[in-house]
Design a protein that fits this description.
The protein is an alpha+beta fold. The chain contains 17 helices and 35 strands. The strands form seven sheets. It has an eight-stranded mixed beta sheet. A hairpin with a 2-residue loop joins strand 25 and strand 26. Helix 9 packs across helix 10 and helix 15 packs antiparallel against helix 16.
Length: 783
């Protein structure tokens, strides 16, 4: 009567799949599953799985015995009374309920032996806008094959099918960065996967050929017009210094390759710190430590110290310090936050609920490999969420924090829809944001009267200061914007917005039943067991309990005392441990003749048949009698000859000699002949190596480059000896800028801040010189 924990036989979940559509930056999908009772008695089953923060569940459909019923998703416990009453009447019932943590619990009962039931939970989500596309994170956590073997479980495979289209931009690529099992057809815009088996949620990165400057999707329903606006604000020039504190969660969830990639991104971040700004690095969690007591300005020595600190992955003397304690220590040490802007960058997966941001600091949250969901946490804590599309964009995402803090937030931002204006909260420069708006009925009617002749939606324009951005507008192909607006309004609305809250509540909880009821012709006989299944980041598991001892609310008795089980005492192992190979065989050494360099000389090579182990007597005889036989290669008149080997026939041995000098002279003659055949105007340029990170590491703290010895091996071009009438440090700085732009045009986001720091040095050294012209002339002469 219990579900097997060894083979998984008896657990009701038989199939899981996600199907949906992604159109113009919004997604409507369904989480579908098939449940079957494989036991010999009736069961009630509950299936719980998490949804990312920001996913709004809309409908719940059930197919039982050919009867299809649609209901809404319950958002309170009132529907459970109706569900229990239906089970008491021996009828079939099902319901889906979402809690405050956005976890979905699906209850199904009662299933007789061999009975099946199919469910579909529909949800909507707005994709995270990026400067070059959109990013979607889906709830697809399930155990991997190795985890299944460890737990002894065989969960069902998770299937995926998504259709992707965009009406306003041309899609350049569609990728799933952290999953290689997907099949992507860019021409059809399809993503398929028959066995999705991963620990972290699924990433879907949609990249456009052009920058995502902005767009506006609108939807008209019941006399209301809902808008989904996406826009990218322009960058600004830094006008104040900042102090950056990077807090990195050193946990056990990341792999070695991911940690290495993250450390490489932090190297670019340290090298891109603007002149006059401060920096500090903090590790919390395992091996917690702090680079400096307070953020400091990075000179040449401190920059080397910071870069060396990133290579420190383990310290036997460090302790484990939680985030709250480390955060409080950092905040207490920063005493000049009112004078110098303090920026705290948190790189991790989750934050404790008791965390309260300090009002004098600006917080940026990064979750590079999506072990959690920082988007809603950032909204609740008043921080800025930086999405990371894939591993290749991690460096650019981290460097965007420096760009966004160049100036203060942009205020007085307005969104103009026709003649109406909507005030938007302050936005961050250089940041791609999205907002959901409701156009009032009267405003929508006035705008529609003015546009009756053209039947066109009014122009949508984003304005602030001297900046005006007209957004392309299109009607949403998926009627889900009103659900997204209602889901966000229920969390962010002020108490005085009673009309908006009432409309949002009406959209999310329509006047329909939240319990699916199917009447049975015959009662189900037998003792009913309750089977719980859960899909999470840890994996899928199930337990089986009798209905008589199982409480429906799953709460423990407060008077129940749970005694912890003592840890087993390890018994000493026999010493010494037996060797796995008690009689190791000697390793054959067929090439022992060539292991000693001296043996390569002709005097030591006689015949393979005469090889034997040399004794001390042989060495003494060689030292006394054979000193004159050692060849002397310092004699220029004698040609060195080398025995390559010997060919042994039936009776005779043939020795092969190679004239080294003759072979070298022949190769030189061949090279000279090829050079003579080459046209005189087409010399073959020597390719010099170029290493971007190494070049950035050689930059001085003031932004200049002066170390010609090491730059010659990494800048990609030969360094000229003439300085064109400039100071040597000025010329070298301009020369390296030209080299970087020529060699790495596709990595502009990685070195953009470093180039700005170098240009600042050149302008401050001599403002009268047109440095753009100087750099262009140097670039024209690069070969």
């Amino acid at each position: 009567m219990k579900a097997s924990l060894i083979t998984g036989e008896g657990q009701p979940v038989q199939e899981l799949r996600i199907t949906g559509h992604i159109k113009d930056g919004i997604c409507r999908a369904a989480f579908k599953g098939t449940f079957e009772n494989k036991l010999d008695h009736p069961i009630e089953t509950s299936f719980t799985f998490p949804l990312p923060q920001g996913v709004c569940s809309t409908q719940f459909k059930v197919n039982f015995g050919g009867t299809k019923v649609t209901s809404r998703v319950a958002r309170d416990d009132n529907a459970r009374i109706e569900y229990d009453d239906t089970l008491a009447q021996s009828d079939f019932a099902a319901m889906a309920q979402v809690n405050d943590k956005n976890e979905i619990r699906i209850d199904i009962g009662t299933l007789a032996p061999k009975e099946t039931c199919k469910i579909a939970l529909y949800f909507v989500i707005a994709l995270n806008p990026l400067s070059n596309g959109f990013l979607l994170v889906l709830p697809t956590s399930i155990t991997s094959f190795s985890e299944n073997l460890r737990l002894g479980l065989t969960p069902p495979p998770l299937k995926l099918h998504l259709d992707i289209t965009d009406s306003l931009s041309k899609i350049k690529s569609i990728t799933t960065p952290f999953n290689k099992n997907t099949q992507i057809d860019l021409s059809k815009g399809e993503i398929k996967c028959d066995e999705l088996s991963i620990f972290s949620p699924l990433h879907v990165f949609i990249q456009f050929e052009e920058k995502n400057l902005g767009r506006c999707l609108y939807q008209k329903i019941d006399g209301n017009t809902f808008l989904n606006v996406v826009a990218t604000t322009p960058r600004t020039i830094r006008d104040h210094p900042s102090q950056f504190t990077v807090m990195y969660e050193n946990g056990s969830s990341l792999t070695g390759g991911q940690i290495s990639l993250l450390m490489r991104a932090l190297e670019f971040f340290i090298l891109s710190i603007p002149h006059g700004c401060k920096f500090n690095y903090v590790n919390f969690g395992f091996d917690a430590f702090t680079l400096f007591d307070v953020p400091l300005i990075l000179d040449n020595d401190k920059t080397k110290q910071a870069l060396a600190c990133l290579k420190r992955q383990h310290d036997p003397y460090s302790k484990t310090i939680e985030f709250i304690q480390m955060h409080d220590n950092i905040i207490n040490n920063i005493t000049d936050a009112d004078e110098v802007e303090s920026v705290i960058v948190i790189i991790g997966s989750s934050l404790p609920n008791e965390f309260k941001p300090s009002p004098n600091h600006n917080y940026f949250l990064l979750d590079p490999f999506t072990r959690g969901d920082f988007r809603i946490i950032a909204q609740e804590k008043g921080a800025c969420y930086i999405p990371v599309a894939d591993e290749s964009s991690l460096i650019a995402s981290l460097l965007s924090v420096i760009k966004m803090t160049a100036t203060a937030e942009i205020e007085n931002v307005k969104l103009c829809v026709g003649d109406e204006e909507f005030k938007i909260p302050p936005v961050i420069p250089g940041y791609t944001f999205s907002t959901l708006l409701l156009l009032d009925k009267h405003e929508e009617e006035d705008n529609s009267k003015k546009n009756d002749s053209t039947d066109k939606f009014p122009d949508v324009k984003l304005t602030f200061a001297d900046f005006d951005l007209i957004l392309p507008t299109i009607e949403s192909p998926l009627p889900i914007i009103h659900h997204l607006w209602a889901f966000e309004k229920m969390k962010t609305a002020a108490p005085e917005e009673k009309a908006a809250l009432a409309l949002a509540n009406q959209i999310l909880t329509p006047d329909t039943s939240s319990v699916v009821v199917v009447e049975r012709d015959e009662e189900v006989e037998g003792e009913v067991s309750h089977v719980d299944s859960r899909l999470s980041r840890i994996g899928i598991g199930w337990i089986d309990e009798s209905a008589e001892t199982k409480q429906k609310d799953h709460n423990h008795d407060d008077d129940e005392i749970i005694h912890p089980q003592p840890m087993p005492i390890p018994h000493p192992l026999p010493h010494p441990l037996p060797h796995p190979f008690p009689h190791p065989l000697p390793r054959p050494r067929p090439f022992v003749l060539y292991r000693n360099p001296r043996i390569r000389e002709p005097v030591f090579i006689n015949n393979n048949n005469n090889l034997r182990r040399r004794t001390d007597l042989d060495y003494n005889n060689n030292n006394n009698n054979n000193n004159n036989n050692i060849p002397n290669h310092s004699n220029e008149n004698k040609k060195p000859e080398l025995f390559v080997g010997s060919m042994k026939g039936n009776s005779n041995t043939t020795e092969m000699r190679v004239d080294i000098l003759a072979r070298l002279q022949q190769r030189q003659r061949e090279a000279q002949e090829k050079a003579a055949q080459r046209p005189p105007g087409d010399p073959k340029a020597k390719k010099l190596p170029f290493f971007l990170l190494r070049v950035l590491q050689l930059q001085n703290a003031d932004g200049s480059w002066t170390n010609e010895k090491f730059l010659a091996n990494s800048c990609g071009f030969s360094i000229p000896t003439e300085s064109r009438g400039l100071k040597r440090e000025q010329f070298m700085t301009a020369f390296i800028i030209a080299c970087i732009r020529r060699k790495a045009p596709a990595d502009e986001e990685k070195y953009e801040l470093v180039i700005e720091k170098a240009l600042t040095f050149l302008i401050e050294s001599d403002p009268a010189i047109d440095w753009d012209t100087v750099i262009s002339s140097i670039d024209a002469d690069l070969q």
